[in-house]
Fold each of these.
Amino acid sequence: MTEPLRLGIAGLGTVGAGVVKIIRQKAALLTERTGRPITISAVAARNRDKDRGVSLSDYAWEDDAVALAKRDDVDVFVELIGGSDGPAKAATEAALTAGKDVVTANKAMLAHHGQALAQLAEDNGCVLRFEAAVAGGIPVIKALTEGLAGNDITQVMGVMNGTCNYILTRMENAGLSYDQAFDEADKLGYLEADPELDVGGIDAGHKLALLAAIAYGTQVAFDAVELEGIGKVSIADIRQAADMGYKIKLLGVCRMTGRGLEQRMAPCLVPATSPLGQLDGGTNMVMIEGDQVGQIVMRGAGAGEGPTASAVMGDVMDIARGTRLSTFGQPASSLKLVTAAQVATPAPYYLRMGLIDKPGALAKVATALGEAGISINRMRQYDQTNDAAPVLIVTHKTTRAALDIALVAMNATGVVAGDPVALRIESV
Amino acid sequence: MTEPLRLGIAGLGTVGAGVVKIIRQKAALLTERTGRPITISAVAARNRDKDRGVSLSDYAWEDDAVALAKRDDVDVFVELIGGSDGPAKAATEAALTAGKDVVTANKAMLAHHGQALAQLAEDNGCVLRFEAAVAGGIPVIKALTEGLAGNDITQVMGVMNGTCNYILTRMENAGLSYDQAFDEADKLGYLEADPELDVGGIDAGHKLALLAAIAYGTQVAFDAVELEGIGKVSIADIRQAADMGYKIKLLGVCRMTGRGLEQRMAPCLVPATSPLGQLDGGTNMVMIEGDQVGQIVMRGAGAGEGPTASAVMGDVMDIARGTRLSTFGQPASSLKLVTAAQVATPAPYYLRMGLIDKPGALAKVATALGEAGISINRMRQYDQTNDAAPVLIVTHKTTRAALDIALVAMNATGVVAGDPVALRIESV
């Protein structure tokens, strides 16, 4: 019988408890599939006394994740603490330095320190895997790093934050305001401790940056992601979009262009009947396009105990089977420092603004667009509600840069109340 | 610099030529991602003089695939000849016996000889990979074997024959008869040399049997797949199904039950608005359900040069990276011999038949159903067209066994013209 693979698990929230359950309940299956037993030597968490629905008495307890990471009886350090820095990073570094492989679900840590950690793993002959960090249970890191490795990746696109998708879906289906849907998500425990991580698009941006690094062999460049949260999306936008056959989704896109790497995470209009448009609730979807394979679409649960634990176990079992991969699919030292390109791929845009009732107001807005080289595809003006009349404009294809010029010019006209909402329309 | 991984490629049809092109055009990318050059030592095919759109002059030529498989300068034998036996099998066996890893796209060979070949690979310390054999470019073998390895798989379901889906889509969208759509597919070169492999559901059945072996740790049991082709599906069925909000798809399902392994590949009605219902043309879709992960859906091109070559390259690059997996995800000797279970999971069924115009005819059909314990959900009788009046029945949930009893009883009534069409309705 082959030696067991011994885990040290730090962080015993939902996902950590889920991993412990799988290892306890499926011991025979895991051994059959990997050829060796997978055992837990020790665990660490903040609160030793909390009931996690699973017995921990067989495992040594460490209060300190760093101490856990260094234990002699730990082969693989499973980091489920979370947070970009602090104990998660300290313990991951300690584990790698001690020559232990690491499996993590921590997108924030990798988005901020992915290059340094990948290099540290490499220097110590260790692997650092993170399937659970992106799109929950969907094995998308594996698909991109391994299954589609023979492709030049032309684009990666996805809805990767279930909480935002839940909020947008509830606004659409139940007619809730953004604040109402946000509160509902909060009560259901869907929001991160800092909700801005979710609704600000940051969490999804972390995931996108990791996918981009693998797809293009570049150093993770989270700071270069153009980020826009869903806080600006109103029920009016959702309804207008629906009227025109669209839904609003927090959509991430990355692609390599002649000017550098485009990465953006922003609410967009997508056709209501498209697979992305039909994606309701907490489900995630990632679409990978390769020059050989065409488009591969993967859909599944983006979060939750079972799906995330499934992804963690996939990585652990790879290690048990002896699979050794570079963190981002190629040696860390070969990852290119990336030039961030402002999003320049033209697209139609949806604009919604309040127009102050003055003679020639609409003409001024149309002029601002025209002078920026933007032509109008559709326009609607509604009855004045408060002080301003709602105006809805769908442009023909234009660049974000041109649009920003037009938006500045519009604000200067003095006829636009507040900031117009501008959302890209994606023909996915 | 690490030693190159040297391939011998047998079979230079579309896919083989596609693999050669990728290796020639993406040499730097492949080396960057795997850490070593991937080269071709020799190729083999039937016709040396055929123009394949790619230069082969750098490679040694073998007329005989077995000779190619044994060459000292070949590390990985890439089998793209096809056919369950003959030279494909002989060369694969020769390669494994000679200690060479094998990558193949050959579903027929593995469906019939998977267990023996997996054992041979294991006995010789070789790997035998076959991502390209199932669902073209979709990395579904990898997802099931590796990414979702921590799950007990509860069900695998999929549309995995692009040709059948093309024919059914054309019947639906263009109102073609089965024969017209078949001829169109034939002219476009979509059909196998023996078309029954496609339209008889055999090719898709091969794929399902391979997925089942991985999912349940069982020996490949293609003979135990309940197979039904699409030849019986008429334009009338397509239209009736559409009227009721369904589409007809050649759908494969496998699941482990208390009575054994259920594997079936048959035309089914699926909701028109479901992801499977919206799957048009040559696209494939596989849905994997695991106890932890829930449902994972993967969609992509099921055939063609680029997608299939992409899958072959995924396997080749895994080997270049040093990944060593058992053929079906666990040692061949541990794969269980499977008891085949007749499909017993109850479902509603769609029935279409011609009713001979005699007093009490409909009552006799209804009685036959009732006596088999099957209750009717919906029924329509249409104007007599030729000698018989078309009757359409949708049953409540029933088993195939009960339905077969009813069908025998119906035929005995003497009021049913010809064989009724019976299609399962899946609420995917």
Note: Chain A touches chain B through 59 residues (CB under 8 Å).
Amino acid sequence: MDLSRAAAEALDAADPLAGFRARFAGADETGPDRLLYLDGNSLGRMPLATPAAVTRVVEQEWARGLVGSWSQWIGAATRLGDELGAGVLGAGPGQVLVGDSTTVNLYKLLAAGAAARPDRDVLVCTADDFPTDRYVVAGVAEARGMTVREIDADIDEGLDLAVLAAALDERVAVVVLSLVAYRSGALADVAEVTRLVHEAGALLLWDLSHAVGAVPVDLDATGADLAVGCTYKYLNGGPGAPAFLYVRRDLQEELRSPIQGWFGQRDQFEMGPAYEPAEGIERFGVGTPPVIGMAAVEVGAGLVAEAEIGALAAKGRTMTDLLVALGDEWLVPAGVALASPREAARRGSHVTFAHPQAWQLTQALVDRGVVPDFRTPDRVRLGPAPLYTRFVDVWDAMDRFRAILADRSYEAFPAERARVT
Amino acid sequence: MDLSRAAAEALDAADPLAGFRARFAGADETGPDRLLYLDGNSLGRMPLATPAAVTRVVEQEWARGLVGSWSQWIGAATRLGDELGAGVLGAGPGQVLVGDSTTVNLYKLLAAGAAARPDRDVLVCTADDFPTDRYVVAGVAEARGMTVREIDADIDEGLDLAVLAAALDERVAVVVLSLVAYRSGALADVAEVTRLVHEAGALLLWDLSHAVGAVPVDLDATGADLAVGCTYKYLNGGPGAPAFLYVRRDLQEELRSPIQGWFGQRDQFEMGPAYEPAEGIERFGVGTPPVIGMAAVEVGAGLVAEAEIGALAAKGRTMTDLLVALGDEWLVPAGVALASPREAARRGSHVTFAHPQAWQLTQALVDRGVVPDFRTPDRVRLGPAPLYTRFVDVWDAMDRFRAILADRSYEAFPAERARVT
């Protein structure tokens, strides 16, 4: 791989997705001191079309339409769900619902899945999964008197299929896994994982938060059972945007949400005496859906769908290859270690580096206009977003990274993190 | 009560809250054909300051601040909770959290309360409470092997204290009640209800959805245990706006959310191996809070706080007195019956009328530019919002109502409701 800046410029010149950059706030800036935002996997940039979409809901639908606008809003959670299904999740209609947070959705589907396998008493997750996933698994297990098998996953290389296989037996009700690991970016082997979990007769619940918009997610084709995910990362839905959930159509009837809300009720406006779950994916609805937030999700997810996930994933692989190669060349000699899979096919769209002073390095990078993410215990995570990040952005960010290592300026920053509460 | 239009005009001229009307979209219109919006208890009008507040979050904090804005957002759910506490809930700081839907919050607090009383196996609610409340109670009871005592409440007059008392004993863990009944507007006797429930050793969980912003809610002063409520009705937070929850400070440590999310975790960004609930009200957080939606809630709730709940409730009582008196004069002779408490002190800010063809009447009213709410089985609910509804709006709406009854034009509308799905 040619590691010159000119080579990065050439990649940008040939980038079929280059036109999307101008459709995001701040992504099109040039100049040597520009902000290099490599944290789109934490909070994606704002699409320029978003303010108008939000304003339309607020100033037209709400302010003028008032309650009359419920004729549109009432179907929004499933309509947008179908759009996500078709555009970014590989899911046919009637299987995706938008609303609530990723955590609430995970709770709903995990509790529903566990209840649907009453003869099984074990939940499986990985010891290095995103905290909220592990906490939800622990909570559901405790409430239901189940046992958690928290399996080891190499925090850099991801899930070992043999380790997963060893944890699976006829006691396992549901397996919760992230398709792309939040720390390392390791991408699970979907076909093999699905085969193993289904062979054991368990349900597979994917957390797609760090995958959707970065790698192909073919829920229907891969035989997924259940999935949840976040829309404010690569889908650019905005801070705290409503999340989504997926339940394969033939599983819907046997699963019931533990939270029996009026938006999951059949004949909702009959307001009948007893809860009876709606027939389709609507049964996983709970309360009034976040109408304003959904308008922003629609814009963000629409751009990803328009770009097409194949093109995004291909660019993501090349970008992360560039990160790995520049890391080998510039960072490793300065004491930094790659903490992500080396093989592009085994990664999502982010790459993580380890260094004992990662927290100080993170602060120094931010100070030099590079936005990464610190991850415990000693990781700097770099997440270029194929939709709007340039190859020269990646190159320049790594150039600043090596400069900080060279001049040791990072040592001037606090070694201890302040409590964020 | 003088029932002339001139008298209504005089009430408007003397209204100390009249200045607030100009701060809401569409509320200041005049003219005989203007829209008469009496559904602010379903979806409040848009404050004119809201678009700028939302735009600030979207175009400044998100688009420019990117992840750096989390320094502000991270405390928003408790900061806004404290504002609601001080401004509209009568709750001291550290007891109110904003986020999730009313239903999710109800589920969290009910499950937490039930788990905190493991020696008790009964949940109490009323047979006429809002559907989502009853459904959540049924779901939590089923999951925990508890029994529901669904007590009769007169659907027009509200809760009979003797009936409540008869349902209370040492088996009752939690009582769920709406402070203002969604159908009739009946206002519960807070002091007596609290005394009865606490005498039985049970926890009291208020649903404040139809009360907050309409009547004084002095949570701390009345010794409330738990409460949840909606922000898109009288608080004018917008469609699907994030809800709130309240847990009295001295109860917080013994209650645990059934949904163990990373936003309820102590030292959240340590991302530690085991869930350990945060110390204060934050432990009832779940996922990433809806940042954009909270900005709109802050504006809407801020206006209610500025107007002061005493003034709003006083105007609400006079407005609903006018509705009742005009109903007696104009509607009752045409076969309509009052379906709300007659005494102002026993009502929230809405009044409901019963008629066998209520659905047709509702459609006819909408057709004549009056927006009420149909409620099952045969009710027309009229909800003037003291913050922006004029007395002449109430008078004119009732005038159109009597005209529809007189010319029987409502009979031209479909008798059967179409399914909304």
Note: The radius of gyration of chain A is 22 Å.
